[in-house]
Design goal:
189 residues, 2 helices, mainly beta, two-stranded antiparallel ribbon
Length: 189
């Protein structure tokens, strides 16, 4: 199948909470949707190192330390605050509580860009999400939405070094169509 000439849009954001064993092997909970995403930006993380010999640039090495990402979202859902950010929901009065004793959970993060032929689905396998800032602004003649930002670091999985995977125009339908039902992990051959 031909590849997309362009990609645009953002939809189908999902997260899956990670459980990590002693050897660094990740298992993933079933993916949950996170609605209201308006923008995502992934900036490569790593360094370039130049080595000079014979009075010239002899060798350049580039390290892949994953990505620093920002997800802009209409409103962070309560389920995400509890599942990932570690906030607790008081059962009797339905109040969310943030505490310094809470621990964030690592997640796999999935999302999709539209394309002129077929959407491209992505997964980041080892993501740490930081607490969001709280911001808003007064209403004027119009009520402007005040989206929130989640800052994330996507690192390599400890067991195999994989950071990210993406579908292509040739990805089989059985994989493409089930992308959001479980975290994609191909069988090891």
């Amino acid at each position: 199948m031909p590849e997309n000439k362009i990609v645009y849009g953002l939809k189908n954001c999902h997260y899956a909470v990670i459980t990590e064993d002693e050897e660094g092997v990740h298992t993933y909970a079933a993916p949950s949707p996170i609605k209201g995403a308006t923008e995502i930006s992934l900036e490569p993380k790593g360094e370039t190192s130049d080595f000079y010999a014979d009075d010239t640039l002899y060798y350049t090495t580039v390290s892949n330390a994953g990505y620093e990402a920002t997800l802009t979202i209409a409103n962070i859902p309560r389920e995400f605050r509890v599942d990932v950010l570690g906030e607790t929901l008081e059962i009797t009065d339905n109040v969310l509580t943030e505490s310094t004793l809470q621990k964030n959970k690592k997640i796999a993060f999935m999302f999709e860009f539209d394309g002129d032929i077929k959407g491209v689905r992505h997964i980041l396998y080892n993501v740490t999400v930081t607490r969001p800032s709280l911001t808003s602004a007064t209403k004027t003649e119009t009520a402007e939405p005040q989206p929130q930002e989640l800052t994330m670091v996507a690192a390599a999985r400890p067991a195999d070094g994989i950071v990210k995977r993406s579908t292509t125009g040739d990805t089989p339908d059985n994989i493409y169509d089930t992308w959001y039902t479980a975290v994609y992990s191909p069988a090891v051959v």
